[in-house]
Design goal:
The protein is mainly alpha-helical. Helices cover 73% and strands 5% of the residues. Strand 1 and strand 2 form a beta hairpin. Helix 2 runs antiparallel to helix 4 and helix 3 runs parallel beside helix 7. The N and C termini lie far apart (104 Å). The model has no long low-confidence stretch (mean pLDDT 85).
Length: 219
């Protein structure tokens, strides 16, 4: 401040505002305390793995479920068409039991082989799109050969070849679609359950519905 009462001006230092200093120190302490409280919660949220929450599945598990449903619904649709169009009376009952056993084998082998290919796939985002689609077609072909041959072999052995002929087109239709959508919604090789089920369940159901449609698939 300036004193102009005399013949010349004199500048004096303003007295320190101790109350303002106390308020600033209190504010700094509160901010630091709030940071200390929030840091453990933020660290826990960042470091907590998504699978531990029970909300996500690995690529191996995702492909296992997809293989399960792909080995369940499309073969079941094919067998239903065979029973309704090709068998009557007691023969239908006997063949129905055989086809039911074939369907169970397709489901089990489809799950195992799906898990194997999912394990080979790993993190799908590590693959480029063209490579992913091409490899998914190769995996689908191999899945169809393995699953179709295993399921068809239940039909007195000679059903292995027709089983492969039926399973490979189904797998070639399903695997690239599933692989593409799975890559799009997965993260670090993990996919949330709520995102997986529409893919793993929905794609085989759509294929089965197309097989049952008389306008698309007929004997």
């Amino acid at each position: 401040m300036y004193d102009t009462s005399g013949s010349h001006s004199v500048c004096y230092a303003a007295p320190p505002d101790n109350d303002l200093d106390r308020r600033l120190n209190w504010l700094r302490a509160e901010i630091a305390r709030d940071e200390r409280r929030g840091k453990p919660l933020r660290a826990a949220r960042e470091q907590r793995p998504l699978p531990a929450l029970g909300l996500a599945l690995s690529t191996e598990e995702a492909y296992a479920w997809f293989g399960t449903f792909l080995g369940l619904f499309p073969p079941f649709a094919i067998f239903c068409r065979m029973l309704t169009n090709g068998f009557r009376g007691d023969a239908a009952l006997g063949w129905g039991l055989i086809l039911l056993g074939m369907n169970a084998v397709c489901c089990l082998v489809g799950r195992k082989s799906g898990a194997y290919f999912g394990r080979k796939m790993g993190d799908p985002r590590a693959w480029s799109w063209p490579v992913l689609v091409f490899c998914s077609m190769l995996m689908g072909t191999a899945w169809g050969i393995i699953t179709g041959a295993a399921g068809g072999a239940v039909g007195f052995g000679f059903g292995a070849i027709p089983g492969v002929m039926c399973a490979v087109p189904v797998a070639l239709a399903g695997f690239p679609v599933f692989a593409t959508l799975h890559r799009a919604v997965s993260r670090d090789g993990m996919i949330e359950e709520r995102r997986l089920w529409p893919l793993a369940f929905g794609i085989p159901i759509v294929i089965a519905a197309l097989i049952l449609s008389p306008g698309i698939y007929s004997y």
